[in-house]
Design goal:
Beta-carbonic Anhydrase, Chain A; 2 domains; 8 helices; 5 strands
């Protein structure tokens, strides 16, 4: 709440300007991209892409896992807002992927809803294998590419993707350098 008070008073300490929020609220939203990223607090999507209010739609789930709410949200911004770009952004040292890797390695499944995240990431882990010392970074990359493939094949996204009205891309964020690198969709 203290942060919101600083923001509203025009004295933010992290670079956002309340006048940009007011300006974006005065008209229709016209974002040019939707970014699906991880919940990791070290990867604040608007900040790492240096975007202001109204520029991008942001969806965050553990390990950028897709579910019906995420798919519906992406379908909405593509169909209703005409967003031409969907980006799936993974990041190095992802804890959700590490959990899936450990679960597959140990042959166990966590309880609760964490099991859903692990279940969705585990196919990427199995594809790269668990014995390779580089399994974690390879599984992160593979999971991003699998998510891109799933989005491109989605019933409501496949047609605009095929028509060239929407592009779905994958990328990785480097926690050490803060650089985002686009991934080649070939596994």
């Amino acid at each position: 709440m203290a942060g919101n008070r600083r923001f509203v008073s025009g004295q933010p300490i992290h670079g956002h300007d309340v006048t940009a929020a007011a300006a974006s609220a005065s008209g229709d939203q016209q974002p040019y991209a939707v970014v699906l990223g991880c919940i990791d607090s070290r990867v604040p999507l608007e900040a790492i892409f240096d975007q202001t209010f109204g520029s991008i739609c942001v969806i965050r789930t553990g390990g950028h896992v897709l579910d019906r709410a995420v798919l519906g949200s992406i379908e909405y911004v593509v169909d209703e807002l005409g967003v031409p770009l969907v980006m799936v952004l993974g990041h190095e040292r992802c804890g959700a992927v590490a959990s899936a890797l450990a679960a597959v390695r140990e042959g166990r499944r966590p309880g609760g809803s964490l099991a859903h995240l692990v279940d969705q990431i585990a196919p990427a882990v199995r594809e790269v294998g668990v014995d390779d010392p580089g399994a974690h970074p390879m599984a992160i990359r593979r999971h991003v590419l699998r998510t891109v493939t799933a989005l491109r094949a989605d019933d409501l996204l496949a047609t605009p993707v095929a028509a060239g009205r929407v592009d779905v891309v994958g990328a990785l964020y480097d926690l050490s350098t803060a650089q985002v690198t686009l991934l080649n969709p070939t596994p």
